[in-house]
Every structure is written in structure tokens, then in C-alpha cells.
Design goal:
Elements (H helix, E strand, L loop, with lengths): L4 H10 L14 H19 L6 H14 L1 H4 L5 H20 L21 H9 L3 H11 L4 H8 L3 H23 L1
């Protein structure tokens, strides 16, 4: 006996040819993954001292989110949870292996009026910030308001503002020193 029209339309909306049907508790995960994979990867890449681990950490964080999606999808901003988990995993890897970024001096520029800072120089400078300052700057670069950054970092908005202030001053010094 053919399925009722209502059942067939629900099934067709969730199925992809050649793949099993998506269970109800996974509804919306694919859209979430598609929308937030790139910003989460950027947040991790800017904190990572070694790019070899970035994709693994991001993938693992999204797999954990998928595994517990029935709970996480009800959060106001589930991407905050994924970023927090990814940063924690990255910190564990960095603490275990003690990977450090080697800083390469940029070439000297004779005319200070034409100082140009590349993305790579900014990323290297961000990686030299303290953990909290780096997290605050990265979340700001991704467009998160201070209140959301505070939730992700697990601190108060005033603490985030302090870390942003300190990070901007340190970045200014690092980038000026690198350009001279």
C-alpha cells in the first residue's frame, strides 16, 4: 500500500538520493553545518599555532555537535557551543605537544608612509597574543558582539572589553615592530 501523501512529502523533504533518510533529531544540522563551518574554522585557525590540526579540531567539534544535536539545536546560538568546544580541543593539543609559531621578520621598508600589513602578519600577531586576548579579538573579527563573545569565553562583557583593549594595544605594537 503506498504511503499517505502527508507521509511521502515529509519523507521526500528529508531524503537525499542515495543516502538514508535524516532522522528527526538531526533536522537542521546540515544547514547549521553549512552556515557555520567557515566562521568556526576561521576562529580555530586564528588561534592555532600549527595549521595541521585546524581541520581535525573543527571536524571533531562539529561531530560532537551532530552527536548531541537534539540538545544543542535548542541553544540560542549553537555556533557558540561549537567554537567553545573547538577552542578547548585546540588548547589540549597545544598543551600536549607544545607547538609554537616561529616568527619570521618581514623585510625592512625604507619609506614608513607606505607600510602595508598583510593578512599573514596580522594572523601571526594574533597568534602571539595571550589566549584570552586572542579569543576576544578573533570573535570581534568574526563579527560577534561583546555580549556573545562573553558567553563563548565564559567571562563577563567587561572582561571581554578589557581583553579587546589590551589586544588592540599589543597588536598595534607587534605590527609596528614587524613593519620597521
Amino acid at each position: 500500500m503506498p504511503a499517505a501523501p502527508d507521509e511521502r512529502s515529509r519523507s521526500d523533504a528529508r531524503s537525499v538520493p542515495g543516502l538514508p533518510e535524516q532522522p528527526d533529531h538531526q533536522t537542521g544540522y546540515q544547514e547549521f553545518f553549512t552556515r557555520y563551518w567557515r566562521p568556526v574554522r576561521l576562529a580555530v585557525a586564528l588561534r592555532a599555532a600549527d595549521d595541521r590540526f585546524v581541520d581535525d579540531v573543527v571536524q571533531e567539534a562539529f561531530l560532537l555537535a551532530r552527536h548531541d544535536w537534539s540538545r544543542i539545536r535548542n541553544y540560542d546560538k549553537p555556533e557558540h557551543w561549537v567554537i567553545t568546544v573547538a577552542w578547548r580541543m585546540l588548547r589540549k593539543i597545544q598543551a600536549k605537544d607544545r607547538y609554537r609559531v616561529s616568527y619570521v621578520e618581514p623585510p625592512a621598508i625604507s619609506d614608513p608612509s607606505c607600510i602595508v600589513v598583510t593578512n599573514e602578519q596580522v594572523y601571526a600577531a594574533v597568534r602571539r597574543l595571550s589566549r584570552r586576548q586572542g579569543e576576544a579579538i578573533i570573535l570581534q573579527m568574526l563579527g560577534y558582539p561583546v555580549a556573545d563573545s562573553a558567553k563563548i569565553m565564559g567571562v563577563t562583557p567587561a572582561t571581554v572589553k578589557t581583553h579587546l583593549h589590551l589586544a588592540r594595544n599589543r597588536l598595534r605594537k607587534l605590527l609596528r615592530a614587524g613593519a620597521e
